[in-house]
Design goal:
The protein has helices at about 5-10, 80-85, 130-140, 160-170, 175-250; strands at about 20-25, 45-50, 70, 90-95, 115-120, 145. With about 250 residues, the chain is α/β, with parallel strands linked by helices. A six-stranded parallel sheet has the order 1-2-3-4-5-6, covered by helices on one side.
């Protein structure tokens, strides 16, 4: 698809002045120049033209608010003066996979005073001796080259930073997991109490049953003892009567 047509589709019933981000990756230019972009895109902050066959930026329109420009995997040789003229507020520029070979090809970037991150990965210039030292010396405003600073510290990831902030606020699965643990512990304690109370109640009931059994046994013993006593009394009386009868017989 041609770049001009692709840009028309990306507008999606908006005017160019309403667009702040525009991605036209993998479309094609007819002559290696920027096509379809005009000065009307004055609010554009992010522009991505990856693998579109660009060889020159001469026709780049004025984009005063542009902060981030993706131009990787094109055929740009140099002549980057247009960038500082048309987009002086760039902070991020990706030129990886282009035809940039010499330091002189990037000298024009000295005029991009706000440029903090530059990517030249997979360009022939990276094979030069002391490539990184030379770029940082040539462009002192640049903090990150190919994703790393002069001390080889990796550039921060804004998405990762956002995740860290969420973690600090206590949001996320960690907090939820702790709450679940607390709830489980409370349930276990409650269950333990219920079990303990049930056990004590059973013990009490059992003790009462044992006491009742013991009382019945004692009552039974007393009844048996009473029967025995009564029987002994009757036996004694019977014996007494027998003795009286014997006396009568002797008379």
């Amino acid at each position: 698809m041609e770049m001009k047509k692709r840009i028309s589709l990306e507008l999606r019933n908006r005017t160019p002045a309403e667009v702040t981000e525009l991605v036209v990756d993998n479309c094609r230019t007819s002559d290696g120049e920027v096509e379809g972009l005009t000065d009307d895109f004055k609010e554009l902050e992010f522009l991505s033209m990856v693998n579109v066959g660009l060889t020159s930026l001469a026709k780049l329109p004025s984009l005063p608010k542009l902060r981030k420009l993706e131009l990787s995997d094109n055929n740009i040789l140099g002549h980057l003066e247009t960038l500082s003229e048309k987009s002086p507020n760039l902070t991020y520029l990706n030129l990886s996979g282009n035809k940039i070979k010499e330091l002189s090809n990037v000298e024009a970037l000295q005029n991009l005073k706000n440029l903090k991150s530059l990517d030249l990965f997979n360009c022939e210039i990276t094979t030069l001796e002391e490539y990184r030292e030379s770029i940082f010396e040539l462009l002192p405003q640049v903090t990150y080259l190919d994703g790393f600073d002069q001390e080889d510290n990796e550039a921060p990831d804004s998405e990762a930073d956002a995740d860290d902030d969420e973690g600090e606020d206590g949001a996320g699965p960690t907090g939820d997991y702790d709450d679940e643990d607390d709830e489980e512990e409370e349930d276990e304690v409650s269950e333990g109490r219920e079990v303990g109370l049930s056990y004590l109640m059973k013990e009490k009931i059992q003790d009462e049953e044992d006491d009742d059994d013991y009382a019945e046994e004692e009552d039974g013993k007393e009844e048996k003892a009473g029967v025995k006593v009564e029987k002994r009394k009757r036996d004694a009386e019977d014996e007494g009567e027998d003795d009286d009868d014997d006396d009568d017989d002797d008379d």
